[in-house]
Amino acid sequence: MNNYIENLHWRYATKKFDSEKEVSEEDLETLLEAIRLSASSYGFQPYEVFVIKDPEVRAKLKPAAFGQPQITDASYLLVFAYNTNVDEKYLDQFVKNNSETRNQPVEDFNGLKEMIQNSVLTFSDDKKEVWASRQVYIALGNLLSAAAELKIDVCPMEGFNPDEFDKLLDLHSKNLKSVTLATIGYRHEDDQLKDAKKVRKSKEELFTRI
């Protein structure tokens, strides 16, 4: 078994973090870069990630996550929020970034711009938000894999009140809605799942080869 697969067996959704062990700034930056480099539809990345270390802020958010201890015990709390206002202005900024990053004229990206105008920008608001939230989960998956490689624990979390988080973090003013969380740190020796064998479907159940 190669190291990557071994590390995926090692990782699990850690529930009890050791508050005395802290993720280094260097490792945090590696994890954030893994999120930044995640695949995304058209490379559009219609989301932002809030990296929260401040203990007072996390203490305020904790009740909105039903008091789960990961919120305050982990080294960092990440809040993934999708953009609710993906429009022409957002698209223009995306094209500008492509032009500047690749040192090419804006006009070279007219085909890409038109493709997005004829797809994403024609979606209803509800469909657009579903599409944007799906992009978030691709980034979350990248975080989980990268963290496993570094032997850093992550707990992905949907057990929270998004409206309360949005209010406390003033996300509405930024045209953002929180959709999922991730706490980052190191597992506590007392975590009940620390040594549990990973339970997944068998390959026969999961995969259909055609």
From TrEMBL:
InterPro entries: NfsB-like (IPR033878), Nitroreductase (IPR029479), Nitroreductase-like (IPR000415). SUPFAM superfamilies: FMN-dependent nitroreductase-like (SSF55469). Keywords: Flavoprotein, FMN, NADP, Oxidoreductase. Its cofactor is FMN. Belongs to the nitroreductase family. The keyword DNA damage does not apply. Pfam families: Nitroreductase. This is NAD(P)H-dependent oxidoreductase. Residues 10-186 form the Nitroreductase domain. It comes from the Bacteria. The keyword Flavoprotein applies.
